[in-house]
Amino acid sequence: MFDSLPQIFAIVGAGLVTGLLFAFSNFVMRALADLPMEQGMRAMQLINERIINPVFVILFLGTPLACVLLVWQSIREIEQGGAMLTLAGAVLYLLGPFAITMTKNVPLNNQLAATDTSNADPVWIDYQRSWQFWNHVRTVAGTLAILFVSLGLVV
């Protein structure tokens, strides 16, 4: 029998993380862009500092761990109903919200952290464009991952 506990954890974790990403795509980055550049940039620097907290870290690292378990479990039980959907969703989450964050958004955040707000113009404008593009991609990937893993429970 396909154990649903990792799926439930992955759905809840991915839902919370993807909801956070959605908020940034939908309104947070626009609000920061409406501020004077130095203030918007400093606010994002502070957000990037404050987001590293126990609750976020547990969700951010625990969800991909659950997805790795789901990949292994889905492959082992590939003939069972929902296994392919669960596999697709887990892989999509690993490649989307997790991998894009680590390879695209975190390096941009590190670059922003190392920049003095008095030099905001070129860095902040480029940061917003690149960061938002990758955030939109990981938001869509996370949303689809939640959908597929959820459907894997009911198919």
TrEMBL record:
Pfam families per the UniProt record, alphabetical: Anthrone_oxy
Membrane-spanning ranges: 6-29, 50-75, 81-100, 137-154
InterPro entries attached to this UniProt entry: Anthrone_oxy (IPR013901)
Domain of life: Bacteria
Keywords: Membrane, Transmembrane, Transmembrane helix
Name of the protein in question: DUF1772 domain-containing protein
